[in-house]
Give the backbone structure.
Amino acid sequence: MTPKEDMIERTLGWMLENLDGGGQEVNWTVAITNTNEMIISKVGGVTSARRGMQDLAHWMAAQEWQAELDGVCLAKKFTRDAASNHAEMCILAAARSMGMNPEVDVDLMGCPSLHCEACANTLDYANVTTLDGARTGSQQGWCHPYAPMAIGLQYGDWAPQLEELDRFNEAGAPDGFPFEYARQLTYQPAGDFEPLELEGP
């Protein structure tokens, strides 16, 4: 059996080398569930129509270890403000739309860089093991994958919003939470996904 960490790192390595101008980071993220499904996304989500996805499918089809996977899916955006849909949260939202419980079913996740504080906080409460640490610093925008709330500099000071996100996640992301600093969205986030068909060239 190929370790999940190796499958994630090999996939990330290929994408960073072959997509978006060779080595340029676009915050690709790869996760594997406890049922061995691989979920791939980036900031703003990704679909099979994106340039390079067919090449990725061809490359993966040629890897012996892909036979150990129970499919590969692409995680799409989950709110209207796709720029605030961080890749990690696209994966959690997609897993929920696939009928999974992300807190149980998303086993391991990897990124080419450190998670932002909001993603790291939410992944921690979701009990998702990651290959990466967290970086400090504010974000212009960030949306929660399950709840109609967002935080970011566009709404005010970052620190009190991040503290409120922590309280919200600790409470289990409940309906009717009395937000003081975060932005309450008027619509419910909705994760989505599509399978990546692994076919040879």
